[in-house]
Amino acid sequence: MQVARRRAANKDTNTSTTTVENPLFPHKMRLHLQVLVALITCSAVPGTLAYKPVVILHGILSGAESMASLVREIEEFHPGTIVYNCDKFSGWYSLENAWRQVDQVRDYLNEVGKLHPEGIIVLGYSQGGLLARAAIQSLPEHNVKTFISLSSPQAGQYGTSFLHLIFPDLAAKTAFELFYSRVGQHTSVGGYWNDPQRQDLYMKYSEFLPLINNEKKSSNSTSFKMGMVRLDKLVMIGGPNDDVITPWESSHFSYFDENMDVIPFIKRTIFTSDSIGIRTLQEAGKLIIVVKPHVHHLAWHTRRDVIHEVIMPYLD
């Protein structure tokens, strides 16, 4: 099926992809209209290649507008691509409970997937990558062909540099006092805060990351793994100069041990036990690890050269 370039505009410019929710224009109807417009446009673009639709999820304390540069690059260099720049949980709303966000992202991906039976690509940046992964795991019958995790704390976070805007005096060594509590678990960050020296509290209080990583067994453990192994391609992108994801190797499922040494993901239980299917994907040649130095966290989705080197090759 051939698809076409989608141009979304906001009230200030003609480049943003932010969408304002209109109660008289339901979200699902908007998705259908978007596809229809894309198909009509496609008929006017001879030779358009049939790139798979791309769903993009923004990071914490930002919104769909922050991903506009990435959307423009995709539309320019892959003409005909339908891009869904998800506008859910923007700004301060991105701090809401992780599961509440995942529930809505899951439904969004399910709706988009039904519109494109040929399959879709999902790219999640920073916290958005973690939420997207959980949403995919919660859809064991999804049709996501490629999942791109762009500098996301897939093994957890143990750094507070990005939180000082909200909690000015928060330090990593004492953050557990906030996050490992009922109040803390109402925040998205509390759900994936992974203190390597407080693993007993992490397992006791954390209601999100230990579940989607199958560190805590649940009635959904099997389906969480099924959702992952259903992927045709899992692309994990990160780098040593990120300065936000801590440790930066968390973007590849590697993480600190109790001595604060980073253990490669292939030596961690999540891989050796194949608890969520990462080993299965690797053995099938479906796991791609990308390490890119000299890229700050805020540049992964904004620097043109980075976008073309680490993202565009995996959009097909």
TrEMBL record:
<dbReference type="GO" id="GO:0098599">
    <property type="term" value="F:palmitoyl hydrolase activity"/>
</dbReference>
<dbReference type="GO" id="GO:0016790">
    <property type="term" value="F:thiolester hydrolase activity"/>
</dbReference>
<keyword id="KW-0378">Hydrolase</keyword>
<dbReference type="InterPro" id="IPR029058">
    <property type="entry name" value="AB_hydrolase_fold"/>
</dbReference>
<feature type="region of interest" description="Disordered">
    <location>
        <begin position="1"/>
        <end position="21"/>
    </location>
</feature>
<keyword id="KW-0325">Glycoprotein</keyword>
<protein>
    <recommendedName>
        <fullName>palmitoyl-CoA hydrolase</fullName>
        <ecNumber>3.1.2.2</ecNumber>
    </recommendedName>
</protein>
<comment type="similarity">
    <text>Belongs to the palmitoyl-protein thioesterase family.</text>
</comment>
<dbReference type="Pfam" id="PF02089">
    <property type="entry name" value="Palm_thioest"/>
</dbReference>
<feature type="compositionally biased region" description="Polar residues">
    <location>
        <begin position="11"/>
        <end position="21"/>
    </location>
</feature>
<keyword id="KW-0458">Lysosome</keyword>
<comment type="function">
    <text>Catalyzes the cleavage of thioester bonds from S-palmitoyl-CoA or S-palmitoyl-N-acetylcysteamine (unbranched structures) but does not have activity against palmitoylcysteine or palmitoylated proteins, branched structures or bulky head groups. Conversely, hydrolyzes both long and short chain fatty acyl-CoA substrate.</text>
</comment>
<dbReference type="GO" id="GO:0005764">
    <property type="term" value="C:lysosome"/>
</dbReference>
<keyword id="KW-0732">Signal</keyword>
